[in-house]
Please model this.
Amino acid sequence: MRSTDAFMKRLNPDMCVVTAVADGERAGCLVGFWAQCSIEPLRLTVWISKANRTCRVARRAERLVVHLLTPEQHGLAALFGGETGDRTDKFAGVDWREGPGGSVVLTGAAAWTVGLVEQRIDTGDHVAHVLAPERSGERPGVGGRLLRLEDALDIEPGHPA
Model:
C-alpha cells in the first residue's frame, strides 16, 4: 500500500466524456482528470491517458469537446469508458452532431463545451490538454448532480490507465 492511498481513495471527481477529431478520425473516452485552471481568461484542462486511443487522436486535434453527464447517463459513460475505439466505433450507437471546427458533440450529454487546444503538457502517463472554451451548451431538462467516480466504479476500462 502506497502512503498516498488513504488520501487518494477519498477523491470522488466528476467524470466527463472527451471527444476529439483529427484527420477525419473520431475518438472519445471517459475522463476523471479535468478541471478549470484559469478564470480570466477562462481555461479548462483535461488529462487523457497515453494508453488510450483518444490520446493519439487528441494530440492531433485542434479542438476537444468536454461533455458532462449525470448518473442517469451511466450507459453513455460505460460506452466511452468501457469500450476501446481500437475495436469499437463508439459513435455508431449514439446521437451526435458536428460542432465548431468539425468537433463531435454528443447530443445526449447533460452539458458540453468545445475548447480550442492551446497547449499540451506531458504529465507522466497522461497528457494535459489546456483548452480555451469557444462554445458551450446543455440539453434542456437535464439537471441534477454530475456523474462522479463512485458512480462509474463498475465500468471496466477499455484500456488500462
Summary: Helices lie at 5-8, 53-58, 74-82, 149-152. The CA atoms of residues 20 and 150 lie 25 Å apart. The chain has a mean pLDDT of 92. The chain is about 15% helix and 40% strand.
